[in-house]
Structure formats: structure tokens, C-alpha cells
Predict the structure.
Amino acid sequence: MQTGWNENRAFLRGTAAAAPVWSHETHGVGYETFPLKVQRLSGCTDCLNVIVPKRMLENGPIEAGMPVRVEGEVRSFNNRTGIGSRLVITLHAKTLEQEDGPDENKLTLAGVLCKPPVFRRTPLGREICDLMLAVNRRYGRADYLPCITWGALARCCGELEVGDGVRLEGRLQSRDYTKQENGQASQRTAFEVSVMRLERVES
């Protein structure tokens, strides 16, 4: 049962960028995946990977350009193929419906910091703090979710320690970057939680 230490709730509304395709099978359940585009207030667009049980698609297919509402949990897994990012972040759908409405991207997470916070400044002087949050699932596994905070909140987060419990609200965002390996440049996409509010959670 989830407690204040372990909470993982996501609500997204956006536009399917492509139809679902086969992803994998776990414990006899088949899953498909599709990219969901969600526009920010700034006008930028996040393209987020949604994993959905195949049975959810039996009532009606998802097609490119279709407005979609998804509720579920943010999940992570380690990519061992050597292609793309090592830590893969997806949205595991618990409900999925075709629904018109303004784009929305809301997360509520609670867990424990599993790495020391990294406080830094951009070349333009903007303050940033990177966090890695471990959120337990019900069955003994955990999701490791990279989070980023800004400004005054970043300064406060820089004082946190490994093992501290936190509860936060924010959004799931995508970020394109260039990876240099062996003199070769390749385009990658990173996924992280942009934190709007954060508070300590005592045991």
C-alpha cells in the first residue's frame, strides 16, 4: 500500500503523435507504446512515451493526431542494449481515453533521495539542482526518477541528503541533447521531472 513516502500519480492530456506499436509482454500481459505530445505554457512541446496494456486498446484504437487523456505512474528501467539512454522513463497507463481539452501535465511523487543532490549554475547564472528520487512500487521494486529544480527551490534542494524523504509536484518533460562518444555526435532525448513544489516528508 502506498504511503506518504511512496506516491506516484501522473495525469497527462495531449495528442498522440503516432499509433501504438508492440512493446513487450510481462506475466502474460501484452503492452504497446506510443508517443504523446504535450504542449507547455511556454509553447514548447514534450514528447513522452506511454506504455499501455493491449487490452485497454480493445475498446477503440489510438491513432496519430487523436486527443488523449492518460492517468498512471511514471516508471523507469535500465536500458542494457547500449543504444540510447541508459535510464528509460515512461508513463505506465492505468486509464486511457480519447478526450478533447487543454494540454495538461501533472505529477505527484513521493519517495527517498538515492543520490546526493547536484547543485550547479548555468553559463547564464541560473541555479539548478539535480535530484534522483527512488519511488517504491507495491511489489518490492522501485523506480528511479531524475528530477530538476530551479532558483530558490534549487538552493534549498542542494542542502538535502541521501535518504531524505520528499514529496513533490511537477511535470514530466523531454529534453533533446547531443551525446559525444568516441568522437562521434549523436542526438539523444532525456526525460526528467521538472519540479514546481517540493516538501520534506518525515518518517
User: Anything to note?
Assistant: The chain has two domains: 7-103, 108-201. The CA atoms of residues 30 and 127 lie 43 Å apart. The first strand starts at residue 7 and ends at 16. The chain is about 5% helix and 65% strand.
